[in-house]
């Protein structure tokens, strides 16, 4: 078994890369530690795709339900500052698209299941300098020879540990709370985000569902605010604050999912034949919903470099192809990470002067068209390198 690219991790990004490369006649193999189970799971977790990520999926022919977002209202719940982003400002049909995580993962998993080894994991690998390839040993002792290993196995990447790559990480000391809900908000093309002492609260429209949920909520709360409170109790206690701010009723319509929030990145994405991609290489705060889009931007850049390298076989340089990918993506990912950290620190501060400055800043940007266009274009993936 000698695929050109062995992909560690059969998640959304790993399966996307496999499908894209095979469409260009580059053989892949996905190594996934979980089972091949395709049974339906409760749809709670969602992803917000920017326009470019959506285009990448459209190019593969991925057909799932999306909710279209044409406008985003952002405001400071403790003040008067606000900013509105509209698709009209960038002459686009939509700003972003909300999709159920399970729906997208399942669509890609089905597509690549014949090229996937399930319930397997890479145990070790070593470079073969003579043949300029990589010898891979799996957990059940199967051996593979490959030109590249794409590390797409998410946070706490096993493949990064095998390569002795060490992440730089920090904790936000926040908990993310997410659930689906039925809301009386009328316009199902508008997303709302509220920054307040009760947390960062985002409510976005959902694709149509049988259980009549209309919106998904992603709510980031300081751990110090939760203290000994049960998360369900915290939600019940403070959901009325956001109902009042948004002038709507919000009725929970699913279980509540929660997880700790932290970030990480690597100073090096490459080790020999191995390259880190998506959440394996970096993670950020979910306040702008950009994590999955950074992953797709990584995957797109990686695929482009591999495809270009194989189209010019005479001058094929494996190290150069990987280095080009790293140069294209590392600085952009770090910029997004630092930007998100800045906004998290800015909006969690209770300092009166900082609150005043952020209200002035939000309103100022809202009145400055070229700044709004810059932010929207960047978030939409239009500022591509």
Mean pLDDT: 87
Number of domains: 1
Beta strand %:
25-35%
Could you give me the name of the CATH homologous superfamily? FAD/NAD(P)-binding domain
Number of helices: 10
Query: What best-fitting shape do the alpha-carbon axes yield?
Result: elongated
Overall number of strands: 21
CATH topology, anyone?
FAD/NAD(P)-binding domain
Fraction of residues in helices? 25-40%
Which architecture per CATH? 3-Layer(bba) Sandwich
Low-confidence stretches: none
Rg, Cα atoms, Å: 22 Å
**Global structural class:** alpha+beta
Which tags fit this structure?
385 residues; alpha+beta; 9-stranded mixed beta sheet; 30% strand
Mind sketching the topology for me?
Layout: E1 5-8, H1 12-23, E2 28-32, E3 46-50, H2 51-60, E4 67-69, E5 71-76, E6 82-86, E7 96-100, H3 101-112, E8 116-118, E9 122-128, E10 133-138, E11 143-146, E12 148-151, H4 158-162, E13 168-183, E14 190-196, E15 199-205, E16 215-222, H5 223-226, H6 231-246, E17 250-252, E18 257-265, E19 270-271, E20 274-276, E21 282-283, H7 291-311, H8 318-348, H9 352-366, H10 369-380
Parallel strand pairs: 1-2, 1-12, 2-8, 5-14, 12-20
Antiparallel strand pairs: 3-7, 4-7, 5-6, 9-10, 10-11, 13-16, 13-17, 13-18, 14-15, 15-16, 18-21, 19-20
């Amino acid at each position: 078994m000698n695929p050109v690219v062995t992909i560690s991790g059969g998640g959304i990004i790993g399966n996307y890369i496999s499908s894209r490369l095979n469409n260009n006649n580059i053989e892949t193999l996905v190594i996934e530690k979980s089972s091949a189970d395709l049974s339906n799971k409760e749809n709670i977790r969602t992803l917000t795709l920017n326009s470019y990520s959506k285009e990448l999926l459209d190019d593969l022919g991925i057909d799932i339900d999306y909710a279209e977002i044409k406008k985003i209202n952002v405001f400071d719940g403790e003040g008067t500052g606000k900013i509105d982003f509209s698709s009209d400002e960038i002459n686009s049909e939509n700003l972003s698209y909300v999709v159920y995580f399970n729906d997208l993962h399942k669509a890609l998993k089905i597509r690549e299941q014949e090229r996937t080894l399930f319930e397997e994991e890479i145990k070790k690998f070593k470079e073969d300098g003579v043949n300029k390839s990589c010898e891979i040993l799996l957990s059940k002792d199967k051996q593979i020879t490959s030109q590249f290993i794409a590390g797409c196995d998410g946070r706490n990447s096993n493949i990064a540990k095998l390569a002795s790559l060490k992440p730089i990480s920090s904790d936000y000391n926040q908990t993310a709370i997410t659930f689906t809900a039925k809301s009386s908000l009328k316009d199902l093309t508008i997303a709302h985000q509220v920054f307040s002492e009760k947390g960062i609260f985002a409510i976005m429209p959902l694709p149509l569902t049988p259980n009549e949920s209309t919106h998904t909520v992603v709510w980031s709360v300081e751990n110090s605010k939760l203290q000994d409170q049960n998360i369900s109790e915290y939600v019940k206690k403070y959901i009325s604050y956001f109902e009042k701010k948004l002038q709507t009723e919000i009725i929970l319509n699913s279980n509540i999912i929660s997880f700790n929030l932290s970030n990480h990145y690597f100073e090096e994405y490459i080790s020999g034949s191995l390259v880190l991609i998506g959440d394996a290489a970096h993670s950020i705060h979910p306040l702008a919903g950009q994590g999955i889009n950074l992953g797709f931007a990584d995957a797109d850049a990686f695929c482009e470099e591999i495809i270009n390298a194989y189209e010019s076989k005479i001058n094929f340089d494996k190290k150069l192809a990987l280095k080009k990918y790293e140069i294209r993506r590392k600085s952009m990912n770090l910029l997004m990470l630092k930007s998100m950290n800045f906004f998290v620190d800015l909006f969690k501060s209770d300092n009166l002067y900082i609150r005043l400055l952020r209200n002035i800043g939000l309103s100022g940007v809202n009145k400055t068209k070229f700044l709004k266009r810059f932010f929207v274009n960047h978030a939409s993936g239009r500022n591509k390198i």
